[in-house]
Amino acid sequence: MKLAEVPTGSAVVTNCRNLTVDVAKGLGIVLIALGHNWLVLGDRGAPFQVVYSFHVPLFFVLSGVFLRGSIPFTRVMWSRTDALLKPYFVVLVTWGAIVFLGKWMVAGTEGNGPLAYFGGVLYGTGATIVWAPLWFLPHLFLSATCAWAIVRCTGGAVLRSASMSAFLLLVGIATIGSLGPHDIALLNIVDSKASIGWPWSLDLVPITAPLIVAGYLMRDWIRQGKFRLSVFVPALAVFIALHMVFHQTMQLNERDFGQPLISTLQAGLGIYLCIAISQVIGRLTSASAALAFIGARSLLVLIFHSCIQDWIFLGLADQIADPYARAVLGLVCGIAIPLLLWEGARRNSLLKAALLPRRA
């Protein structure tokens, strides 16, 4: 079998999951963790530019693979609430209770009382919560609901869905970062210089919902497509060239889309490359099993990786002088510890009900 055309059809479907999607999620969540690590954030050089050009959009595209417009609205809302909002509120409310009932403060909440903390949790953007990566969960709830509405209204027709999504994307790019500092100051939750957007990052929905619809429209290729070397190599070359010439990044949480055309091309190419690599890895038993294991448990890695990495990198500064060693240790623990927590939660009825979706 030639590498230029690796079939990834029914062979990648295991236990009602799709191996390519799980591997892509595994790669994506490793990139998310790496993007919040000193190795990438230290000098914000080429690795930062590459990771921050597509890693967050990748997850929105993958979220669209199993989108179904035929599912009733009430079922969609219940499923998304259970999978996304439940762990978001359980983790942040529990942490807030520990902080304030224990009468000690954590970085990011000094000077603010419980009202400001829990107000920030309800507002639900990266700048208003202690663990910024959790902004993704309530926003995905809104974005996925909007994407469902688009698919529902268009009947899943490719042209109508793509046209509506393209229009929304243009609107989102044109309006990103439109909430000014004077509005933020009224919230009395975070520094007035921060860019927090609308509650649950509603202002980003015109950008992220089209990404989910794109994943829906490409679902057959993502799940069962073939890796083609003749497409992969030119795409990789263009991706590298764009980064070498333009140095653009896309940081949605900070309301920075970058140069619209270049950032869109970089994100599209990066997503394609990651999925294509996942299709190849899907044929490699050991590598695919490890990444799929991580991808299927990416929720808890998303929630806890950043705080674990920060605690290790900062907390072990006196014991481990080399920042690279601390950063690598933090990255490994930031992925491994949430995976262990997932396995523990599966075996504990209370943790399972509080953190994990009711259905896989």
In short:
The chain has 360 residues and is mostly helical. It has helices at residues 19-35, 38-41, 46-51, 55-63, 73-101, 114-123, 136-154, 158-175, 181-185, 205-217, 219-224, 229-246, 260-281, 285-296, 298-315, 323-346, 349-355, and strands spanning 5-7, 13-14, 17-18, 226-228.
Your description of this structure?
This protein has 360 residues and is mainly α. It has a domain at 71-205. Helix content is 66%, strand content 3%. The chain has 17 helices and 4 strands. The strands form 2 sheets. A two-stranded antiparallel sheet has the order 1-4. Helix 5 (73-101) packs antiparallel against helix 7 (136-154). The protein starts with a strand and ends in a 5-residue tail after the last helix. The model is unreliable at 1-15 and 105-109 (pLDDT under 50).
Map the helices and strands.
Layout: E1 5-7, E2 13-14, E3 17-18, H1 19-35, H2 38-41, H3 46-51, H4 55-63, H5 73-101, H6 114-123, H7 136-154, H8 158-175, H9 181-185, H10 205-217, H11 219-224, E4 226-228, H12 229-246, H13 260-281, H14 285-296, H15 298-315, H16 323-346, H17 349-355
Count every beta strand, where a strand is a DSSP E run of 2 or more residues.
4
Placed side by side, the strands forming the largest sheet appear as 1-4
Roughly what percent helix? Answer: 55-70%
**Strand percentage, roughly?**
under 5%
Mean pLDDT: 87
Q: Name the structural class.
A: mainly alpha
Q: Which short descriptors sum up this protein?
A:
360 residues; mainly alpha; two-stranded antiparallel ribbon; 17 helices; 66% helix; disordered N terminus
